[in-house]
Structure to design on (281 residues):
């Protein structure tokens, strides 16, 4: 398998993985959300000394999704995504819907057509860029986390359904990495069309509530999973957070509904105490 389509390749994980896969000799189709990113990525690729096919693919656009069906994609990396920060009781309906359109519905509709082509060929690989938030949760990322929990369900089901057709399915679960994505997500409240007086929280005083890591481990793992060099279904980075992630899942079995009632949860306080780390870059 040689032809790779990576969505959300205009920045961050997708862009770097596109470059690294091209350096490995793959024919990489780097899909960006808007036309303005096409020339930017082409210039960056030329500076890097790699050859990419750069295309405008907004995963929520039906015409863009149909266009991708003509590229004989053998490896699909579903990386496109957005983060809508805010309490689950505050985020406006339109913002919730966009979160799911970009993170879940659009990528799944894109995958449906491409996965059927893979099944008919008897081989293929679908990589879902999920998140640690698809396994755990944090305050003020609940809508994003819900979308990634949905991706976890889709990927696991797809793995079983496509097994007989020779199509591989894997997930990559990045934790908190310092690419700017998380901090940008905590600024989206500034565009909400709601009544600020009705909000439960003051978002000007909140920041992403977890310390963020250098993104290199995700670049390496995402590239390796897409290239077929790693054969594990679930791939969480940083690996130092694997046991903590598992323990948080298990802890819910013992959680009582009145635990801490009437007091501020420690992770909520941490969001108040934290400052946007991207500002330090």
């Amino acid at each position: 398998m040689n032809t790779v389509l990576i969505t959300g390749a205009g920045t961050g994980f997708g862009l770097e993985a596109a470059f690294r896969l091209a350096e490995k000799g793959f024919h990489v189709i780097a899909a960006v959300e808007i036309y303005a990113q096409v020339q930017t990525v082409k210039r960056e690729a030329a500076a890097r000394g790699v050859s990419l096919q750069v295309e405008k693919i907004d995963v929520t656009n039906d015409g863009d999704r149909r266009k991708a069906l003509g590229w004989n994609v053998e490896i699909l990396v579903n990386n496109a995504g957005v983060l809508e920060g805010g309490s689950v009781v505050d985020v406006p309906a339109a913002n919730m819907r966009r979160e799911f359109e970009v993170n879940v519905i659009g990528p799944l509709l894109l995958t449906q057509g491409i996965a059927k082509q893979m099944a008919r060929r008897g081989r293929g690989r679908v990589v879902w860029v999920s998140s640690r938030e698809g396994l755990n949760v944090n305050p003020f990322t609940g809508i994003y986390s819900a979308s990634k929990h949905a991706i976890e369900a889709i990927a696991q089901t797809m793995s079983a359904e496509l097994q007989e057709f020779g199509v591989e399915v894997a997930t990559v679960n990045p934790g908190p990495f310092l690419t700017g994505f998380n901090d940008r997500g905590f600024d989206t409240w500034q565009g909400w069309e709601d009544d600020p007086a009705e909000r439960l929280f003051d978002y000007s005083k909140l920041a992403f509530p977890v310390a963020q890591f250098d993104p290199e481990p995700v670049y390496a793992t995402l590239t390796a999973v897409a290239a077929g060099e790693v054969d594990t279904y679930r791939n969480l980075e940083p690996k130092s957070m694997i046991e903590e992630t598992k323990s948080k899942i298990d802890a819910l079995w013992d959680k009582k509904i009145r635990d801490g009632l009437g007091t501020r949860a420690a992770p909520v306080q941490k969001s108040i105490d934290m400052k946007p780390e991207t500002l330090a870059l």
Observations:
- Residues 133 and 145 are 5 Å apart (CA to CA).
- The domain at 3-239+247-280 is CATH 3.40.50.720 (Rossmann fold).
- The chain has a mean pLDDT of 96.
